[in-house]
Design brief:
213 residues, mainly alpha, 10 helices, 2% strand
């Protein structure tokens, strides 16, 4: 089951490499390295096997990272998620928090400047693809569709749909995310009711928070 989740995320990773080049590979490799290492260190002494769930945790955490995030921040985040949000509760199946989300929240609170100033403009069709070499960091921290709408700037719907906009590594690939969800539903890996309820609740909260400023 866990492998199917990882399989569903592979196209999203591939798209992030198209958008951000080497930065995507560097962040992903760092997260997987420290995620698996942390899992191994805390499970082997107790005679337990390294769970495949750490692959899903690492994948989701990596996709939530800004493209130019310092690698040490990414490493600290995944270590926190695997160790303190998972293994201290007894490991896979006993944790009360999602390790990937817990790690993401931790680094956002602990290193706000490092997180907010790590977004870069993605590759777009018509531009020469340079594997991300020479791309400068965009320090604008409010370049999101909702913030643009609040300022009266109409969003580019085509960019929103196709994914060619600034964001986290796996944030903008809307079509691929939908396809991944459908794959998990049709393979009975995920329950469509949980996916739909999560999406609707997130959408409502986001709109309310945007409306109140």
């Amino acid at each position: 089951m866990m492998r199917k989740v990882v399989y569903s995320l592979i196209p999203i990773f591939a798209f992030s490499i198209l958008l951000y080049g080497w930065r995507s590979l560097a962040v992903t490799a760092t997260v997987f390295l420290f995620g698996i290492l942390s899992e191994y260190i805390f499970t082997k002494p107790r005679g337990k096997k390294v769970s495949e769930a750490v692959l899903v945790t690492s994948a989701l955490f990596a996709l939530s990272m800004p493209p130019a995030v310092p690698l040490w921040i990414a490493a600290i985040g995944i270590i926190f998620g695997v160790v303190f949000a998972k293994n201290v509760f007894g490991g896979f199946g006993r944790n009360i928090f999602n390790p990937a989300i817990a790690g993401r929240l931790f680094v956002y609170v602990a290193f706000p400047d490092g997180m907010q100033r790590s977004f870069i403009q993605p590759w777009r069709p018509g531009m020469p693809w340079t594997f991300g070499l020479g791309t400068s960091i965009d320090t604008a921290t409010s370049a999101t569709p909702l913030m643009d709408m609040k300022e009266g700037i109409p969003p580019n719907l085509l960019d929103l749909i196709t994914g060619f906009r600034m964001g986290a590594l796996g944030e903008s690939a809307v079509i691929l995310i939908i396809l991944a969800a459908l794959y998990l539903i049709f393979t009975k890996t995920a329950n469509w009711k949980i996916i739909l309820s999560t999406f609707l609740s997130f959408s409502v909260v986001t709109v309310v928070l945007w409306a109140v400023g």
